[in-house]
Specification:
Elements: H1 3-15, E1 22-30, H2 34-37, E2 55-58, H3 60-63, E3 72-77, E4 88-95, E5 103-106, H4 107-111, H5 119-124, E6 127-133, E7 138-139, E8 142-143, E9 158-161, E10 171-176, E11 183-191, E12 198-204, E13 207-210, E14 218-226, E15 229-239, E16 248-250
Parallel strand pairs: 1-5, 2-4
Antiparallel strand pairs: 1-6, 2-5, 3-4, 3-6, 7-8, 9-10, 9-16, 10-13, 11-12, 11-14, 12-13, 14-15
């Protein structure tokens, strides 16, 4: 990635003024979780194991050309007779093309918004009036999103070699278990011990690829950016020289950065992770 483009990314991040306001919307649900497994993010059948099955398809402003894949958002429905104050946390695995609702979520996530004993009553709503924590101010090509941290139980960032990869000419990867509140906006790859980096291009969703594949064992570096800050994350030994399609490799690093934003919270203080 060129120095100019990196500076541009950090500039865009630094001048985005976000708020932490609660947003009003509606949420529908998929009657079958399988509808989210073939989603635009490219996680495939592995998605069912993410976030306890509390998955979501997000509208384009939150999907953000795939940068929003893996992001978590806290959603609560607004009927106090059947809905809890804290709601539930969902993970984005797909694109929602229906602008009538900001999210379409799994039925498990929909019921998780309920107070004890009222899950079936919430499900009967079909489409629920909700509020969620996120910012939607768009600057250039980026959305500043007040996503909440995903809880991956201490798992490191992981790289999965996509089935479409063709060693040694083509490498496609997807990225799992990204913590914190930042977005990965750039990925580079190099042979372990080399400083000759090649950039990957976002193919779609969480899938990044390159036709310039270094030989031998591979290292990666990622640019994460949100709010005021942006930085490199280095994973110095990820893929072995005999990497194989379909295998998930541990990067040995965790992304835990929290987005810094230029304003004060504007919710009522009742938002807490469940």
């Amino acid at each position: 990635m060129s120095l100019f483009f990196l500076v541009f990314l950090l500039f865009v991040s630094s001048v985005t003024a976000c708020d932490r306001c609660v947003h009003q919307s509606k949420v529908a649900y998929f009657s079958s979780a399988s509808a989210l497994l073939s989603g635009a993010c490219g996680y495939g059948n592995l998605a069912i194991g993410f976030n306890g099955g509390r998955l979501a398809a997000a509208v384009p402003k939150l999907y953000n050309n795939g940068a929003g894949c893996g992001a978590c958002y806290q959603i609560r429905c607004k009927d106090p007779k059947i809905c809890s104050k804290h709601g539930t946390t969902v993970m984005v695995t797909d694109l929602n093309k229906n602008n009538q609702t900001d999210f379409v979520i799994s039925s498990r996530a929909f019921m998780a918004m309920a107070i004890e004993g009222k899950a079936k009553d919430v499900l009967k709503l079909g489409i629920a009036d909700v509020e969620y924590k996120s910012t939607n101010i768009v600057l250039f090509l980026f959305v500043c999103g007040d996503r909440v941290p995903c809880d991956y139980k201490g798992k490191n960032l992981a790289v999965r070699v996509d089935e479409s990869s063709q060693k040694p000419y083509y490498l496609a990867i997807s990225i799992f278990y990204q913590g914190g509140q930042t977005e990965i906006v750039s990925v580079d790859v190099a042979q372990v011990g080399s400083s000759n980096w090649n950039f990957l291009t976002r193919n779609h969703g969480a899938i990044w690829d390159t036709s310039r594949v270094p030989s031998g064992a591979l290292q990666f570096r990622f640019v994460v950016t949100a709010g005021y800050d942006g930085k490199w994350i280095w994973a110095k030994s990820v893929l072995p020289s005999d990497w194989k399609n379909g295998v998930i490799y541990d990067t040995g690093v965790q992304i835990t950065d929290i987005a810094q934003e230029g304003c004060s919270p504007c919710d009522d203080g009742s938002w807490k992770l469940n």
